[in-house]
Design a protein that fits this description.
CATH superfamily: Creatininase
Largest sheet: 5 strands, parallel
Number of domains: 1
Bound molecules: zinc ion
Number of helices: 8
Distance between the termini: 17 Å
Low-confidence stretches: none
Radius of gyration: 18 Å
Number of strands: 7
CATH architecture: 3-Layer(aba) Sandwich
Helix content: 25-40%
Strand order of the largest sheet: 1-3-2-4-5
Mean pLDDT: 95
């Protein structure tokens, strides 16, 4: 078996797996507003599905999805949860140290939430001199190439949220959780102040959507999901030194 799910396996199965393949995959999601048509666990569900498929097509012990991330920008939306930057960074570091002790030697941290890559990057940097585990981090590598057949444009500086891409992935993965009758298109006005101040992204939008959710389809979602998986598998295999 080239992958195993840690949460539903026994410690002995994990030991035997890591003895043969000392690699793991950690999906990091979020619980945060995704407009009126998507559930708050959108990022977590997508991260979980990607991690599982990447594991199936490459190698690794798949870890349980962490359902809360760094979501400061949505803190005024009821139900949206956030760790502080330092707490989230500490959570990542604690998980990496656990894996290091378990004999894991390479970890893919896979996130689908745009504010998570920074804490992941700094957590990995702080660990690199103290652990034997190598960390690779992925947030939709080459996304602009993947979305060449998108029907809408992304918001300011390639920011996207609850729009065509995420909604399409959810229509493919979990159609029962999407209410397209409530999907909207919203492009909040360009704001330089947003980039240069502490103005949260959440304050700019009426609906919570940044982009056009109305043009999402399950067919696009399927195509984009498979391309995302292929991209991540490619770089992860390369990182592990496995043949393509
Ligand atoms: Zn999202």
């Amino acid at each position: 078996m080239n992958y195993i799910e840690a949460a539903t396996s026994t410690w002995q199965e994990c030991r035997s797996f890591l003895g043969r393949h000392p690699f793991a995959i950690l999906p990091l999601g979020a619980t945060e507003q995704h407009g009126l048509h998507l559930p708050q666990n959108t990022d977590s569900l997508i991260a979980e599905a990607l991690a599982l498929q990447v594991g199936r097509e490459s190698m690794g012990m798949i870890l349980p999805t962490i359902p809360i991330g760094y979501s400061w920008v949505w803190r005024d939306y009821p139900g949206s949860l956030t760790f502080s930057f330092d707490t989230f960074r500490a959570v990542i570091k604690d998980i990496v140290v656990s894996l290091d002790r378990n004999g894991c030697r390479a970890l893919l941290i896979l996130t689908t939430h745009g504010a998570n890559p920074q804490p992941i990057k700094y957590a990995s940097r702080e660990l690199v001199d103290h652990t034997a585990i190598r960390v690779l981090r992925a947030f939709y590598p080459n996304l602009s190439q993947i979305m060449t057949d998108a029907d809408s444009t992304t918001w300011q500086n390639s920011n996207f949220h609850a729009e065509e891409f995420e909604t399409s992935l959810m229509l493919y993965l979990h159609p029962n959780l999407v209410d397209m009758t409530k999907a909207v298109s919203e492009y909040p006005p360009y704001s330089l102040a947003y980039e240069m101040s502490t103005l949260p992204m959440g304050a700019l939008s009426e609906s919570g959507v940044f982009g056009d959710a109305t043009v999402a389809t399950a067919k696009k979602g399927e195509r984009w999901f498979n391309l995302c998986v292929a991209n991540i598998v490619k770089v992860w295999k390369e990182f592990l030194g496995l043949p393509e």
